[in-house]
Design brief:
There is one protein chain. It is built from three helices and two strands. The protein has one domain. It is mainly alpha-helical. A two-stranded antiparallel sheet has the order 1-2. A hairpin with a 4-residue loop joins β1 and β2. The protein is 47% helix and 6% strand. It is globular.
């Protein structure tokens, strides 16, 4: 994954989070994380998404964040 793609993804994520700041509860967080873990683009070693480069333990917890593949 290129640094440019990561930077673009971070910019999009920041815009999403700004529109809906806050944390999700454990139930919603775990539902999102389970979707990520079932995806072939989830890196179990780094716990990052290979599509957007985000750390999913954080991104899945943030209320305004979105999956780049529209899975949640």
């Amino acid at each position: 994954m290129s640094w440019g793609k990561i930077a673009t993804s971070m910019y999009k994520s920041a815009k999403d989070v700004a529109s809906n700041p806050g944390w999700l509860g454990d139930k919603e967080f775990n539902e999102r994380l389970n979707v990520c873990k079932s995806c072939n683009l989830y890196n179990f070693h780094t716990k990052r998404c290979k599509e957007c480069g985000c750390f999913m333990m954080v991104k899945a917890r943030v209320a305004g964040s979105k999956c780049p593949l529209q899975k949640w």
